[in-house]
Design a protein that fits this description.
61% helix; globular; mainly alpha
């Protein structure tokens, strides 16, 4: 897994409301655009200084990002805090409207419960 690329995607998209809205509306389009136009740049905003050719996602990572499969991302070693916060931003309102406060967070915990008592996947690069 290219943990750096996945974690960079999660961090950048979660931190930018327009990217987050694009990701929610059309995940496949945003993942493709991020990989070609946004992800390869080192730095952000005014500090974007250099384009690199080594940042890319694997097919498995693309699929998990497009499908919002946070369990697969976690199991591949994506940082658990980044997966939690981006998917809270995407789903919290609709889950709360349906099932009350913290509904998405409870689902997240339930789906990752199989890791209780086990060694978590490494988030090291």
């Amino acid at each position: 897994m290219s943990r750096y690329a996945v974690n960079k995607f999660l961090y950048q998209v979660d931190g930018d409301p327009s990217l987050l809205a694009e990701y929610k509306a059309d995940p496949a389009a945003l993942v493709a655009r991020w990989e070609t136009e946004i992800g390869p740049w080192l730095g952000t905003g005014a500090r974007t200084v250099e384009r690199t050719s080594w940042i890319s996602l694997t097919e498995e990572e693309r699929r998990a990002l497009v499908e919002h499969d946070y369990v697969a991302l976690f199991e591949m070693g994506a940082h658990f805090f980044l997966t939690l916060t981006i998917f809270i931003a995407l789903y919290d309102e609709e889950y709360a409207a349906r099932s009350g406060p913290l509904s998405f967070q409870r689902e997240y915990a339930t789906k990752l419960a199989l890791w209780n008592g086990k060694t978590y996947p490494s988030v090291a690069l």
